[in-house]
Amino acid sequence: MPRILDIQMNSFPIAGTFTIARGAKTQAEVITCTLTDEGAEGHGECVPYRRYGETMESVLAQIEAARPLIEAGISRRDLLSAMPPGAARNAVDCALWHLEAKQTGQSVASRLGIADPKPLTTAYTISLGEPEVMAAQAREHAGRALLKVKVGTGDDESRIRAVRAAAPEAAIILDANEGWPEAVLERHLNIAAEAGVTLVEQPLPAGRDALLAEIHRPLLVCADESVHHTGDLASLADRYDAINIKLDKAGGFTEALAMKTEAERIGFAIMIGCMVGTSLAMAPAVLLAQNADFVDLDGPLLLARDREPGLRYVASLVFPPESSLWG
């Protein structure tokens, strides 16, 4: 019986509105791939991202174009050259990992040599807004161990100080989403350092971030939009201290594993991040993040409705996926 690929387009409402420097959204639109082979099923989810030129329709078309190879039994290794990095390959690659686990009876964690996956402290995201609104969000979640605060304007000082005052004990990551003008870069980095911020993510636009190599960086600066796959890493070593690995950027779990290994060799601190998706998208990332320096896998917490079964979140912890979900 041949392998069968099923592709579904799904939409999950966000609780409220999720706002970053580039805009706001109220729905998480995802694509789910299901591979069936001899009674076993594997699932993978991706989140098309317009910042990278992806739409639901373009990602669906990419997967459909690869359908003959996928249903013919393409390996994960060959998939790396058959499809480009991005959301489409991620959904297929994660479905292949899950299918292999079901067929072999050996979990993905076991195949990676992880005998006992641990719960991880994950960031919780505070959306971009006026300082008092962001402070109210931070105050509501001040008991969490790690907050990821969306910034990205020409005047973020009041936002940084308001959030810190509202959550004095929490570790804080600032995510500028490419939104800081060069003229305010050093000032904002210094304000962040004064406020005890742990890390700043992607302050300058990708491709226009050379200034980071020329200035003193008073705290860790992390690449996100500037880094997608393993081939990007070497060119960023002079301007970033950390990298954010996301399955949808890398194009799947297979590439993300290789990318993490190479990034550690170069000396980057590792963040494992996500788009706004469901527990199915987060599940492989939880395994990828087992020894990461920073974990940002709160996607399902931002949704009004998640998949069932979903990941278990307790306070600041996200627990490894059960086999009924993925892995």
Descriptive overview:
It comes from Rhizobium mulingense. This is N-acetyl-D-Glu racemase DgcA. With 327 residues, the protein is an alpha/beta fold. The protein has 2 domains: 103 residues, Enolase-like, domain 1; 199 residues, Alpha-Beta Barrel (TIM Barrel). It is 32% helix and 23% strand. The chain is built from 10 helices and 14 strands. An 8-stranded parallel β-sheet has the order 5-6-7-8-9-10-11-12. It has a 3-stranded antiparallel β-sheet with strand order 1-2-3. The chain has a 3-stranded antiparallel β-sheet with strand order 4-14-13, with no helix packed on it. Helix 1 packs across helix 3 and helix 5 runs parallel beside helix 6. The longest helix is centred in the first third of the chain and has 18 residues. The protein is globular and about 60 Å long. The two termini are 23 Å apart.
Radius of gyration: 19 Å
User: How many E strands?
Assistant: 14
Number of helices: 10
Mean pLDDT score: 97
CATH superfamily of the largest domain: Enolase-like C-terminal domain
Shape: globular
Unreliable stretches: none
Protein name: N-acetyl-D-Glu racemase DgcA
